Amino acid sequence: MNIPANAASPSAARTLADPDTPFAVVDVHKSRRNIERLAARADRLGVALRPHVKTAKSLDVAGLLHDDTPCPVTVSTLAEAEAFADGGYTDITYAVGIDPHKLPRVLALLRRGVTLRILLDSAEQAEFVAEASRRAGLPIPTQIEIDCDGHRGGLKPDAPTLPEIGRILYDAGCLDGVLAHAGESYFAYTVEEQCLAAKNERDIAVAAAERLRAAGLPVATVSVGSTPTAHAAEDLTGVTELRAGNYVFFDLVMAGLGVCRIEDLALSVVVTVIGHRREYGWIITDGGWMAMSRDRGTAVQAQDQGYGLVTDLDGNLIPGLVMTGASQEHGTLTARDSAHLPDLPVGTRLRILPNHACATAAQHHGYHVIDGARTTNTAPAIQTIWERVTGW
Amino acid sequence: MNIPANAASPSAARTLADPDTPFAVVDVHKSRRNIERLAARADRLGVALRPHVKTAKSLDVAGLLHDDTPCPVTVSTLAEAEAFADGGYTDITYAVGIDPHKLPRVLALLRRGVTLRILLDSAEQAEFVAEASRRAGLPIPTQIEIDCDGHRGGLKPDAPTLPEIGRILYDAGCLDGVLAHAGESYFAYTVEEQCLAAKNERDIAVAAAERLRAAGLPVATVSVGSTPTAHAAEDLTGVTELRAGNYVFFDLVMAGLGVCRIEDLALSVVVTVIGHRREYGWIITDGGWMAMSRDRGTAVQAQDQGYGLVTDLDGNLIPGLVMTGASQEHGTLTARDSAHLPDLPVGTRLRILPNHACATAAQHHGYHVIDGARTTNTAPAIQTIWERVTGW
Where exactly are the transmembrane stretches of this chain (chains A, B) (predicted)? Predict the structure, then answer.
């Protein structure tokens, strides 16, 4: 919704100094820049993008992807699929292994004219998908999940059951292709490792596709991606589409991997100083884990960033200040190493840059949107508020 | 809302086998039992209870506390205070340090006739609260936060500024009392340590109150509490009210402390098996951190329970099965030590008992309510759906 400049309701807040804290902020300038960066990469690699919308879960953020024109997307829940279908999106991949109970909602979306692709990695799933497709007289486009790095689900490309699963799906008109996700690339700490992870993700997905083709089974889609590998891939020959989600916002985990810079982080949470424990070197804020999530993704990285780094309201990093503690509605800020603990009176507003954008965004109903490219003499102006899709 | 037995909408689901997963479940029988247990303790100790509603954030769950009659409550956000005021609650303590920006909403609640007490621990806060009270012609009842264990905010009872803060508040008609919270009792691993933490919490709160009284400042409220200390306190002489929140649901952290048994846990999340990686010993479900939260509270306990323990749909523990991994919409279950990995086909529904009820509940819009005291031949029947208060 757009906020009238002089509306009188609480939603009439006009700068980051106005709404009660904590609240989530998206800098649309940074988000657009992140989106353009990966779009340019995909163009150079000659591959289509299918962004994963699970990070922002917002039709408005997704509107930045393609000039407000619906584009192919990936979703993590059927609630997202339904919300994006309502928003005019017609080419959607639901990238979580299917269970039989969810098929009625899948079929309902297909009947609405949405090409909703689903995912599986076992013959038992292929059988019930084929059966449901036959009963409905409507083939459910299905991808076989391929495991490229032992991260989660999927079949190895040499799994004995791969051709059998492909055949069950093909015979029911359901076989669409293969999908791989290099989840372990979140632990690839150098550019070289990320490039290798991207090459491996491609090689394994293409090998699985070739194995199916060698068995006489047509493979239309060869889908790969994760934010680190999407930014590292050098050659995607044989791949038809690239997926990534986190990059729309980025976060400290991605900055720790070197996939982005800290100044690229588009999501933050505005908090207020509510107290001090000077004897312990603590500044206490009203942003705890309810506002930030319990995600401590940087704990395994070379630089543990606690629950997040701290900026002023304009987004300038406060050197050495880290959110190191969180209870439900309290955050604790401390100075790293020998950094000076700044004097920040009660009432001071700060922004916290999160470890994991997907998890932090999930703690909020929506985003207060600012445009970091517009400089002002006051706190950043709130352009609008964007809502999130929630639930399953 | 009550669900008509034969309604046709998706909300007509009648047992835990019906709604799409994941979703949160509250066993109202267990919750009532937990509530009765602490109420009986408080009666024996001769102290009033002021339950903290931040765990369930639900007027319906709060209705269990006192036969659907509004009782004194503690809240963690002004959104909770406003929702409970809408529900007829008139005696509310907002137990997070105040910042000046939130005072208009505090005053609005007071003007509605709600006795909303606020919290602070500095002279600068006392000054702006006194000033706002004078300007509004409406004294804001205020408690001084006392630190009993170095856990978070608050003043030590011998802090030089304590009488000064009391005086500023008293002169403006705002001084209500003192409040302490033994947050470190979450790390008190024996009954003896918990008893000591409870005694310390009482002693320190009473000492602070006595210091204020010695300075000629009347102290009406002496408020203490945390779920572990509320269940361990042996003598609360001088205390006027006891706070606790988590006990309405309990969780694996509390079970690990011995404050409750695992069979007392009233909150769980229903998930569905969506795949297997038998070569790794993994069962994969559709319940990841979005459904469970990232909270790993038992990681510091003697028995790390991963992201949660696993039961069947009736709530019977599956021995040795633990949710050890989580991505956004995927959970990984593994067998502990030499336990047998059960054969659970795709589509099998399970329940996950959470580490931290406050954090897991926060991932859901509401609760599907069952009554574990009613045995059936089918999956537990869903009695109703209860909504949560969200946001700030």
Answer: none
Contact check, Cβ <8 Å, A289/B295:
yes
User: Is B98 touching A (CB cutoff 8 A)?
Assistant: yes
Q: Dig out the tokens for A347 from the structure.
A: 């009432």
Q: What are the residue ranges of CATH 2.40.37.20 in chain B? A: 15-24+259-387
In CATH terms, A10-24+259-387 corresponds, of 1.20.1250.20, 2.40.37.20, 1.10.1060.10, 2.60.40.2470, to 2.40.37.20
If you classify domain B15-24+259-387 with CATH, what class do you get?
mainly beta
Contact A204, A178 (CB under 8 A): no
Instruction: Name the CA radius of gyration of chain B, rounded.
Output: 22
Q: Taking a contact as any Cβ pair under 8 Å apart, which residues of chain A between 355 and 374 contact chain B?
A: 358-359, 362-365
Which residues of A, range 42-61, sit inside 8 Å of B by Cβ?
A: 54
State yes or no: pLDDT of B375 exceeds 90: no
Tokens of B141: 């009842």
Alpha-carbon span A274 to B121, nearest angstrom? 9
pLDDT digits (tens, 9 = 90+) for B228-249: 999 999 999 999 999 999 999 9
- Is the pLDDT reported for residue A351 higher than 70? yes
Best probe of the A interface among B11, B18, B20, by most A CBs < 10 A, is: B20
Chain A residues within 8 A of B287 when measuring between CB atoms = none
CB B265 within 8 Å of CB B236: no
CB A370 within 8 A of CB A382: yes
* Structure-block tokens of residue B86: 């809408």
Q: Identify which has the larger pLDDT, B3 or B221.
A: B221
Mean pLDDT of chain B: 95
Confidence of residue A377 (pLDDT cuts 50, 70, 90): confident
Distances (CA, A) of B146 to A162, B39, B151, B225: 63, 25, 11, 12
- Between B103-111 and B123-136, two packed helices, what is the crossing angle to 10 degrees? 40
Q: With beta carbons less than 8 A apart as the criterion, state whether B143 and B212 touch.
A: no
